[in-house]
Amino acid sequence: EFALRGGAAAEELGWRFEALVEGSQALSSGEPDLGNEMFRLGHIEADRALALLKALGYHTVEFAPSSKAKDGEPVFDMIEGKRKKLPWIIKVVNASKTSLLEGDPNAVKKSTMTKSKGAEGAPKLGGSHLHNTTTGAPQERLLLVYDRNEPEKLEQLVNLLQTQIDVPAQQIVIEALIIEVNIGELRDLGVEFSGSQKNASLGFESGDSGSGLTTFLFSRDGFTDFIDFRGKLEALQETGDAEVLSSPSVLVLNDRQARIQVGRQIPVAKTTATTGTITKGIEYFPVGIVLNLRPRINRNGSEVTMQIETIISSVSVESAARLEDVGSSEIEFSPIIDNRLVETYVRVADGTPFIIGGLLSTDRQSTRAGVPVLGTLPFLGRLFSRERVETEQREVIVVITPHIVPLEENSFSYLIPKDSDLFDRFDTQLFRNAYRVRDDDVWDLKFVEQSPALMDMMQRVRDQASEDVMLQRQEPFQSLLQGRIPGEEVLVRRMLFEIVANLDFPREVNLDQIFFFTPPADESRGQKFSDDLTLQDILPKALAEPENAVMLIYEAQPVPLPGQAFSLPLSTVRDTTVAPEGRNDLLWDMNRYDERGQAQQWTILLADEGDIERLKQALVLKSVLQLNKNLPQTLQSFRPGVQILFPTREDMSNRYHLIDRDVAQLFFETKYPYQIAEKIFNETVHQVEAGLGGER
Fold this sequence. Notes:
The protein is of the alpha+beta class.
C-alpha cells in the first residue's frame, strides 16, 4: 500500500511499520489493546445519550450516588451492563453543584442566613453557601474505551453520536406586535372578526370572564402584504386611534418555552397587626404584558404549532387617576387591576403572521354640570343640570409571526442587526475595537459554493465515508465532511483585507517603524544574529525611477540550522528593474510552489506607492488575524453580523511592525485571491482522487 500510494516520508513509513508490528503482536496475544477517547456532548444530555446507546446494544458504564459520603463529598457506585463487548461508553459524572443559587443538599433545612425584610420586587442582599469543591472540568462528557486493533468500531460510534444523537435543535424567531386600537377603527385595518372570508379562518373560544375571544389566522395568499397592514396601523397611530403597546421578539429552541414580559411594578400598602404592634410596609406586584409561547416545528420544517398564553394586565382608569393625584407618601389604597387572558393552540406556516383578538377594555366616563344649588334638587334638578356619559371600547390585538431558522445557516436575516455604526465599538477606554461585518463586506461567492466540481467531490467523499468510517479522521476528507471548501480561507482573508482598507487603518502604520531581518552583512565575523533594516532604508532607491523595484524574498518552509532551536524570518533583499506592465508577472513568478502545491517561496514586490499601501494593509491584516484566532476562516462563518476585533489606532501607530513570511504570504494572496484559491482547490481534488483510488 505504501509503494502504491507513494509520497510518504521515511520516518512516517517507519512509524506506520512499528504500529503495524505492535498491532500484530496484540492480535497474536489475543488481548485487546485498549485505548480511550473523551467525547464532549454539545446538545444532548449524557443520560439521554447513554440510554439510547444502551438500547442499541452498546456496553455502558454509569455511576449512581452512594449513601456513603466522605467529608461532605459525594461517593458513587458503578453501574454497568452485562454485555462487556468493546467499545465501552462510560459516563463522566458531572459536577454536583454548578450554580451559586443552589442550596446545600446535605445542609439542615433551617436556614442560618438572615432573611431580608425588604419589599417584594426590590433587590435583596444575601449570600450563598460555597460548600462544594470548586471544579473546572467540562460537563456532559462520555469516555469511549475501544480496541486499538479495531479503530473502525470507534469511528462508527463517534459517527453515530455526531450525526444522529448529539444533534442541535432548530431555532425559531418569534416576532410579536401588541396593539391597542379603538374598536370602531378596526375596519381600517382590514380585520373583520364577525365571520370568515376566502383566505382566512376564524375561531371563537370562551374566556374565563365569559367574553368572546377570537383567533384570526391569515393564509399566505390572504395576507401576503404585511407592510400594508403596518402602514394602516401607522396612520391610526397618527390620529390617536391606535397605540403600539409593545413590539418584542425572541429567539427560542424548538419545543422550548419562551416568555416575554413587559411591564412595571405597582406599589400597594401593606399593614400587619399583631399583639400591641402595627407594622406598615409596601408590596409590589407586576402589571403589563406577558407572552408565554412554546413552538414546535413539523417534520418538513414548513409549519409551526404553538401553545400561546397572552396576559395583559393594567391599572384601571379610576385607580390610575388616583395614583397620579396622591403624593409619594400616600399610597394606602388597593388599585383595581384589569386583566385580560387568552390561551390557545395554533398551527401556522413558516413566516405567516396571525392575530389574537378579543381582549376588550371599556372606559366609561360620566360628567355632570348644572346650576349651583338648583342642579342638586331632587327631580327638579335635572331641569337645571346636564349629564354626559362617554363610553369608549378599545381592543388589544396581538400579531405573532414565527420564522424558522434553518439549521444549515450560521446566520439568519431576522437575527442580524442592520448595517449601522451603532453596532461598532471603536476608540473606547477599556475594550478593544470591534467591527460588525456589513452586507456589502461579504462577496457573492455562490459560484464557488455551488461549483459542480465541488458538489461532485463532496458527494463522492460522503459516499466513501459512509462505507469507510476511518476517512473521517484523515485530511482532506475530514475538512470536506465538515463543510469546508478548499481555498476558502484565502477568499475570507481577502474580504478582511478590504475591510481594513475601508476603515483606513493603514495610514496609522509609520514607514520608519516597519522593519525586517536580513542575513549578517559580514559573515566572516561568525555572528549568530542577523541585521535588521527598516523599510525607509530600501525605499528611496526603489522609488527613484519608474522601472526600479525591490523584492523581499522569504522561505515558505524554513528549516532551522543544526544547533539552532529556531530560525529568524530572514529576508533576501534584491533590487531589480521591471517595466510597470511586467510587475504582476514578476510577482507571480517569484512566489513559487512545488509539484504538490506546497508553497516554497513568498515574495514582496515594492515598485510604487500602491505596493507600499498594500504592504501596510497586510501588516494590519496580520494583527487582525492574531486578534481573531477563534474566527473560522470559512465562507459559512464569515457572514453579515459577525464581530471582528481590531487593534487600536494608537497601538498600530506606536508599535514596530515586522515583515515576515506571514506578511509576505498575505501580500501575495490578497493580490491574487481567486487564482490561489483555485490552486488549493485543484490540489485538494488530486489528494481526494489519490485517497479514493481514482474511482469515478
